[in-house]
Amino acid sequence: MKETGTIAVIGQGYVGLPLALSFAMNGQNVIGVESNPEIRKNLASGRTLQNENWNGKSIETILKEQLESGRYRLSGDTVAAVREAETICLTVGIPVADGQPVLDSFHGACEQIGKGLQAGSLVLIRSTVIPGTSESYCVPLFEKLSGLKFGETLFVAYVPERIAEGSAFEEFRTMPTLIGSSDPQSREKAAEVICINSRSEMIFCHSAIEAETSKVLENLQRDTNIAIAQEFARFAEAAGMNAIDVIRLANTHPRVHMMEPGPGVGGYCIPNAFYYLAHKASELGVSLPIMKAARDLNDQMPNTIVSKTIELLAQAGKKPQESRVAVIGLGMKDYSPDDRLSPSVVICEQLAASGFEVRAYDPNVAKAYPYKVESIEKAVENVDALLILNKISKEFRPSEFFSLLKQPAVILDTRNLVQEKDLPADAVFWRI
Ligand SMILES: NC(=O)c1ccc[n+]([C@@H]2O[C@H](COP(=O)([O-])OP(=O)(O)OC[C@H]3O[C@@H](n4cnc5c(N)ncnc54)[C@H](O)[C@@H]3O)[C@@H](O)[C@H]2O)c1
Known about the structure:
With about 425 residues, the protein is α/β, with parallel strands linked by helices. The chain has 14 helices and 17 strands. The protein is globular and about 75 Å long. It binds nicotinamide-adenine-dinucleotide.
């Protein structure tokens, strides 16, 4: 087993927690640093809402095991944890508000890291960032606060996190890892730490900004790909075809990887990527019209779904103030407990603001919402419209609940889960 001394993982969210536990499972002494006392308290008692598994164990089981082993412990004190650790992994994110990256938490975490650094410290920046952040912002700040010298007594690399929520433990092992730093020693030291968890390829980038930009580009590729699928879905609808069936046909070509349309694009990663690149692009005087159009289109999808619901209910002779709507799925994507920037949540809120009584069901999402109910039956019973926004479990078959809907039922299927032969006789049906 490789011995790297103590590893401090700053931020114990969707990335930081499974990352810290992976290091601990691989024999390392890990401090999970989390600024939110509520999250810390829950983690310290073995509780998390995350939905990850490894080797047949849930993340909660792994968390309890690693707490008991003493290899994983929690702290709210970043400076002290950084002082104690040889390696620091930064996983605090950069949210976006009104199209602008909000840097307060990320900058706050960097300042605390800078104050705790010791000669020989290695910092791996794993958050998704505005291109240029690691070596134009973090390194000078770390040098100033610690008095250390990058490449001599301080080592810093940008190592983008590429996992998908729900597959974190598996993907820490199998996902090829980019390691970006202009300092060769930093790249080598980073690789030694990464190979504790990873059995996959490591790709060295001779600057942090290349790795930072490639991470943003990966997310933007998915954003634009989904936007094309959304636009194509409108064409397929007008032409009387099932868009998802046609996309699957196109994907039988080995060089075509079209994604599927849906109710919008949520989560922390894909929607924010454009704004990170746009921030750098405006500094450089470059415009990004295609990526912007894609972002805007995906951003508009919840409005499209709400307008379609109102249109179909009107077709069925129903008014918003008299109608109840059931929404299946609140997570940012199928099966997800993560409801950050979730299109489903936007749709529920817009429907409620338009006068509908909304009842939403998603067993994966723990957060309480005024319109959330605890069973699918409670959600669908006697409603005028059913909106299928996410796959919520492998077993979920919407048609099993059609008889509970008020007839004539309005049914909107954004996940291609409904077969027309199963529809109630007089249903008003729309598929994305
Ligand atoms: N979620 C994913 O699947 C995923 C995948 C790849 C990359 N990323 C990127 O990884 C980063 C983290 O994403 P996430 O989903 O884990 O975010 P998250 O919000 O779940 O986790 C961040 C955690 O950091 C904590 N925090 C904030 N400031 C802190 C500080 N100063 N000290 C200690 N803790 C602090 C927050 O309370 C939060 O718990 C983001 O940049 C994101 O874009 C996420």
